[in-house]
Amino acid sequence: MAIATRSPLRLNSPMSRPSLYNSQRRVFFQSHAWFRAQPRTKPICASAIKAEAGAQKEDIVIVGAGIAGLATAVSLRRLGIGSLVLEQAESLRTGGSSLTLFKNGWRVLDAIGVADSLRSQFLEIQGMVVKSEDGRELRSFKFKDEDQTQEVRAVERRILLETLANQLPPEAVQFSSKLAKIETSENGETLLELTNGTRLLAKPKITDPILLKKLAKELIKNWPPELLKLIDLTPDEAISKAPLVDRWLWPGISPPASAGKVVLVGDAWHPMTPNLGQGACCALEDAVILTRKLADGIKSGPESIEGALRAYGEERWPRIFPITIRANLVGSLLQWDDPLVCSVRDNVVIPKLVRLGSMLEHTNFECEPLET
Questions:
Q1: Which of the 8 DSSP states describes residue 196?
Q2: Which keywords appear in this protein's UniProt record, sorted alphabetically (predicted)?
Q3: For a tag site, which of 166, 185, 200, 214 has the least CB within 10 Å?
């Protein structure tokens, strides 16, 4: 089995205050909590394999020590199943913006035994304020008023990754290990080939932090002063630029989650825009669902592994597809430029029609503790 993820990319200006900041142009979500923002998930991939003669044999290999990769390894370990995590970088990739985790993400972290250590380090976000481009307040919400069980916290990616990695023995994560290719042998075994002579295709881009900050300020020059000030207060080296990407899992068109003993999790299968704060949460959900399916398959015998991976994809698709579409549509709504559409949105849709409870229905996710 192999799992691979590719994260949504975006223009990130790590900020000290807004967390549910969801638009590059027209509408802003401001959270009632203070935290430092850092970037989001990186590519991961995992594979359950038996290698050919002469190669190191591992039953389960996870390629990529990102959120989904490490969460899968921790989940497997809690069920007594070992795995090897391969990461092409020399250490955990700790740069980036903070991650907004809703209650479905916290249910998974509870299930794998790391939630409490994270809760003690990050404030719970009480609510959010939606503002127009000129700073006018359109709507405010308190999460508990809509759902007493809701839990929203912004977690630094670095701390989340380190917390997950600390649940694993040191030898379980192997750094400086880049995947070159995956092959399937004649007898159906999966072989991952690594290389240390990696060649990268370079593309011109702005990397100077001072120029990036200048570009960021130019892009948001019409935003309210309080948000402009946050850019000024952000360290130059904490600003990055990247495009937003997503992929919709169209029924009958999109590839399945698995092929043979290779399976995709997280953003490798379903990258989504950050407008709902569900990228990391859904990656965590993937990890526990895949772990349960895989554990059942292992108990039934090697011939059941491929069926277990297909079952994972069949269970996850009906949940992931609507969330991916909703995230894209919410982002489109918040970033319209047409004056008439913006007027209807700012004076009718958001103030009078939007209900936070229905907007957060996708955060309902039950997850029993993973225990041997």
A1: S
A2: Monooxygenase, Oxidoreductase
A3: 200
Buried b (16+ CB within 10 A) or exposed e, 116-146: eebbeebeebebbbbbbbeeeebbebebeee
Residues 343, 350: contact at Cβ < 8 Å? no
pTM (2 d.p.): 0.71
Q: How far apart are the first and last CA of the chain?
A: 22
Reading phi first (left if > 0) and then psi (alpha if -120 to 50, else beta), residue 181 is in beta
Tens-digit pLDDT profile for residues 26-62: 444 444 332 333 333 333 334 444 444 455 556 788 8
With CA atoms as reference, report the closest residue to 43 among 210, 265, 257: 265
For the chain, list the domains and their CATH numbers: 2-197+243-363 (3.50.50.60)
Q: Which carries the bigger pLDDT value, residue 135 or residue 100? A: 100
**Mean pLDDT across the stretch 180-191?**
68
